[in-house]
């Protein structure tokens, strides 16, 4: 997840670094976090995964809400 003040961007990649699906831009609020959760669930279902590892590129304090 690339963090910013008002919105963030998430990408899904496999263990080889190959992108899986389209990125998600989401807002830094409850609505955006819900969209992120739903996107992660959809990616897991689509690719038949039961676990996910989330990486964050923190910028200042903007990642604290996550």
TrEMBL record:
One of its GO terms (biological process) is DNA transposition. Residues 1-66 form the Transposase IS110-like N-terminal domain. It holds the Pfam family DEDD_Tnp_IS110. GO terms for molecular function: DNA binding; transposase activity. Coiled coil: none annotated. InterPro entries: Transp_IS110-like_N (IPR002525). It comes from the Bacteria. This is Transposase IS110-like N-terminal domain-containing protein.
């Amino acid at each position: 997840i690339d963090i910013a003040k008002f919105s963030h961007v998430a990408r899904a990649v496999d263990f080889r670094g190959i992108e899986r699906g389209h990125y998600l831009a989401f807002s830094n609020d409850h609505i955006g976090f819900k969209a992120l959760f739903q996107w992660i669930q959809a990616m897991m279902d689509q690719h038949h995964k039961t676990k996910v590892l989330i990486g964050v590129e923190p910028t200042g304090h903007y990642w604290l809400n996550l």
